[in-house]
Design brief:
mainly alpha; Rossmann fold; Glutamyl-tRNA Synthetase, domain 3; 10 strands; 44% helix; elongated; binds glutamic acid
């Protein structure tokens, strides 16, 4: 069977880098094998899911370039979950329970106080038919638990290696709520089966769910897919990332001028022993991708590393890749010469705006020594100018004034650009042009 994976966020918040990492790894894994990548929205929780979050998730994935072959909404598949629940009831694997949340909490506290694991005691299975009827006539509706079988549950996790659980140590999970709504454990397995998912790649917070789900696949007559559980990213100081941690959200990163391929380049290698290098396309990342490279150790996400990578990516970005974006920013008169001159100085693409203004004006020059500036203007070579012009000019100025090094370059940079730092003057000078250079050396805003 050909590979099929799914990324299954709940549209109850925006995606952060931790979610993006899971999405990307699924995408690279599938696409590297000619497989399918499905976006599944786990939106059965009507109170917390919103269309706006669903749209935002699609927007964020599209920004990263992670296109999907199919979009599946769990809210549109409720009949499938109902049918599966009916099958489980018929085979005796789903049983009704009437405890309230408070009663369950008291049981849990008692078990913990007695040093026992908080496993559901299956009291509801002891209920006699007449007691059940009485509860129903009192208006109580049951929630439904999956009857786990004792015995070993095992799988070879593609990240964690062999994983073992004993069904006897797990609590029968609730799969259907009293109002009839399916819970994640059921809907996820039904979808994974019916959409022919071959590999479930998700965060390690789901390892215990997987143990339950392995039995559920069997109970529904399916074979479990392969599983890979990735350690969750931690933020600065080892704290976990939460979906609501806005600063590490994709939307915030986009707003900060982070390139999607910088995010992808970092997240595709974080947690492996491979070096993190800026890559311009997902195809390049796909080439070196191997799920087996991901370690069980918890990787830390460092925003400073992302910023550094973003700059490195811009420094190597070809003109064709930048042009459309620069035009969208409203910068015109952009040509390859400009791009190659300024890209080594960019931390964000947006920084190109400043250098465009430096090249095209107006710039208020900074003149600290007007005598030197006058002499520099007099020695300016005649047009046409190219990249050799600045060297020839600086050589002539050095011979005439005896200044050299920083004492020579700094006042020229301040006069020509109004700034202490910036792209190499030998590239900027021909773009600034003779007319503006003469005006700026004379102290005029031009
Ligand atoms: N909606 C679940 C989550 O966001 C999906 C987990 C899974 O991949 O099965 O955690």
């Amino acid at each position: 069977m050909s590979v099929a994976v799914r990324f299954a966020p709940s549209p109850t918040g925006r995606l952060h880098v931790g979610n993006a990492r899971v999405a990307l790894i699924n995408w690279l894994f599938a696409r590297g094998r000619g497989g399918r990548f499905i976006l599944r929205l786990d939106d059965t929780d009507r109170e917390r899911s919103t269309d706006a979050y669903a749209a935002a998730i699609e927007e964020d994935l599209a920004w990263l370039g992670l296109g999907w072959d199919d979009l599946v909404k769990q809210s549109e598949r409720l009949d499938r979950y109902r049918a599966a629940a009916d099958r489980l009831r018929a085979s005796g694997r789903l049983y009704p329970c009437y405890e309230t949340a408070e009663e369950l909490e008291i049981k849990r506290q008692r078990q913990l106080a007695g040093g026992r694991p908080p496993i559901y005691d299956r009291a509801a299975r002891e209920l006699k038919e007449d007691a059940r009827k009485r509860l129903e006539t009192e208006g109580l509706r049951p929630h439904w638990r999956f009857l786990l079988e004792p015995g070993e549950i095992a799988w070879d996790d593609l990240v964690r290696g062999p994983v073992r659980f004993d069904g006897a140590n797990l609590s029968d999970p609730v799969l259907v709520r009293a109002d009839g709504r399916p819970l994640y454990g059921l809907s996820s397995v039904v979808d994974d089966m019916e959409l022919d998912i071959t590999h479930v790649i998700r965060g390690e917070d789901h390892v215990a769910n997987t143990a339950v789900q392995v039995q559920l696949f069997g109970a529904l007559g399916g074979a479990p897919p392969a599983f890979a559980h990735l350690p969750l990213l931690t933020g600065a100081g080892g704290a976990g990332l939460s979906k609501r941690l806005a600063s590490l959200g994709l939307e915030a990163l986009r707003g900060d001028g982070i390139e999607p391929m910088a995010v992808n380049s970092l997240l595709a290698r974080l947690g492996t022993a491979d070096p993190v290098e800026p890559r311009l396309s997902l195809d390049e990342l796909k080439a070196g991708f191997d799920l087996a490279r991901f370690s069980r150790a918890t990787p830390g996400f460092d925003p400073a590393e992302l910023q550094h990578l973003n700059a490195r990516l811009l420094h190597m970005m070809p003109y064709d890749a930048a042009l459309g974006r620069l035009e969208e920013m409203g910068l015109d008169g952009i040509d390859e010469r400009f791009w190659l001159a300024v890209r080594p100085n960019l931390g964000r693409l947006e920084d190109a705006r400043e250098w465009s203004q430096v090249c095209r004006g107006p710039v208020a020059p900074v003149i600290e020594d007007s005598g030197f500036a006058r002499e520099a203007a007099e020695l300016l070579p005649e047009a046409p100018w190219d990249e050799a012009t600045f060297g020839a000019w600086a050589g002539a100025l050095e011979a005439a004034t005896g200044r050299k090094g920083r004492a020579l370059i700094r006042p020229l940079r301040l006069a020509l650009t109004g700034r202490e730092h910036g792209p190499e003057l030998k590239y900027l000078l021909p773009i600034i042009g003779r007319e503006r250079a003469v005006a700026r050396l004379a102290g005029k805003t031009a």
